[in-house]
Design goal:
Blueprint: E1 14-15, H1 21-24, E2 33-34, E3 55-56, H2 64-69, H3 71-83, H4 92-119, H5 145-159, H6 173-189, E4 198-202, H7 214-240, E5 244-246
Parallel strand pairs: 4-5
Antiparallel strand pairs: 1-4, 2-3
Helix pairs in contact: 3-5, 4-7, 5-6
């Protein structure tokens, strides 16, 4: 016996508004930040593939060409930090190292933290510094967002008497999470947009008075379970991108 699929069951999840402009407008070189987010749209969320976690290409920031980009801002950065009484004993390779590993820290800890909150059905206000602001290019100046990030980070490093960046050390996570907030405050005070994408998800339909056959009821229950799994993938993706969920 063939069971007619209700058109209303084709998609129980609706993305009402998506604002990923902070990523879409990015000119980050593909080799510097490998984001492999992919969503397969289909009439059933059972076919949705879970996105793979993005990663930072650390080797990209070790290339001489990329390190040389920091030479354009290092003198101004030293002058500004010296005026604030901060340590200025850093090199262009040091700045490149920080830029790479700080992004990795955000992916490993802020995104991981947000994902855990989702699993516990809690809301998290934790948001990473937008990755668009880590763009490295040969025309960076003191007006570039990355300059503001580096200035705030190295002032923080001096204030907290951090000898070396230890982004892999678990005991330093709390300290670096504080630095994330300091950097975001610095970006905001310098008029850099920190818009957080807001995504509205709906997975419920208005109740209907139609009488359903047993087969249709069973099929709906099965699809709802599949859609719940797909919805969790959506939520995980949103959280890992630093977005907030409005339900």
């Amino acid at each position: 016996m063939m069971v007619r699929r209700s058109s209303k069951l084709r998609s129980l999840l609706l993305v009402k508004r998506v604002d990923f402009s902070f990523l879409i407008k990015s000119k980050i070189p593909p080799s510097s930040l490998h984001s492999t987010w992919s969503v397969t749209y289909s009439s059933s969320l059972s076919k949705m593939t879970a996105p793979r976690k993005p990663r930072v290409d650390l080797e990209y920031y070790e290339q001489p060409k990329v390190i040389n980009y920091f030479d354009n801002i290092i003198n101004d950065l030293r002058i500004d930090l010296d005026k604030e009484g901060a340590d200025t004993s850093f090199s262009a390779p040091d700045l490149a190292y920080f830029t790479a590993h700080f992004q990795k820290f955000q992916l490993d800890h802020i995104c991981h933290y947000s994902s855990k909150k989702v699993q516990q059905h809690q809301h998290s206000n934790t948001a990473a510094v937008p990755f668009i602001y880590f763009t490295v290019h040969d025309s960076m100046t003191s007006k570039s967002p990355l300059y503001t990030i580096l200035k705030a980070a190295y002032k923080f490093k001096s204030d907290y008497q951090i000898v070396d960046w230890r982004f892999e050390a678990n005991e330093e996570v709390t300290t670096y999470l504080k630095m994330v907030e300091v950097i975001k405050e610095s970006l905001a005070s310098n008029n850099f947009e920190l818009s957080i994408p807001r995504i509205f998800l709906y997975n419920k339909e208005p109740a209907t008075t139609n009488v359903k056959k047993d087969e249709e009821v069973d099929e709906e229950e099965e699809m709802e379970k599949e859609n719940d799994d797909g919805r969790d993938n959506w939520i995980s993706s949103i959280r890992q991108l630093g977005g907030r969920l409005n339900e």
